[in-house]
């Protein structure tokens, strides 16, 4: 099995522009929602390829940005109390959560 990501430069630029604008408009609060969107963006454009048969199966991330509002608020408080250092750990925890809530079609 191999993992294959299908990310185009235009998709990446579009995704980043949306989040930069949202971050500016919300004075940075959108950055706490960004890791969920980022992980879902990458996982939904990834597939698993069987090396023997060549069959390609798409990965699907089943997380919803707004269903984890309690988690976001908790990490927002942790990040503020740690003067931003908590955000680094938050990003990894979101990836862990996203991968645990993904499936292969």
List keywords for this structure.
DUF898 family protein; alpha+beta; 53% helix; single chain; 105 residues
Number of strands: 4
Helix content: 40-55%
Radius of gyration: 16 Å
Q: Could you state the order of secondary-structure elements as H and E?
A: EHHEEHHE
Morphology call = globular
Structural class: alpha+beta
Distance between the termini: 15 Å
Low-confidence spans: pLDDT under 50, at least 5 residues?
A: none
Q: What is the average of the pLDDT values?
A: 91
Order of strands across the biggest sheet? Answer: 1-2-3-4
Describe the structure in your own words.
There is one protein chain. It is built from four helices and four strands, in the order E-H-H-E-E-H-H-E. It starts with a strand and ends with a strand. The mean pLDDT is 91. The protein has one domain (2-104). It is globular and about 50 Å long. With 105 residues, it is α+β, with helices and mostly antiparallel strands. This is DUF898 family protein. The chain crosses the membrane at residues 12-34, 72-92. It holds the Pfam family DUF6693.
Could you give the topology of this structure?
Layout: E1 2-5, H1 9-25, H2 34-43, E2 46-49, E3 56-61, H3 69-81, H4 85-100, E4 102-104
Antiparallel strand pairs: 1-2, 2-3, 3-4
Helix pairs in contact: 2-4, 3-4
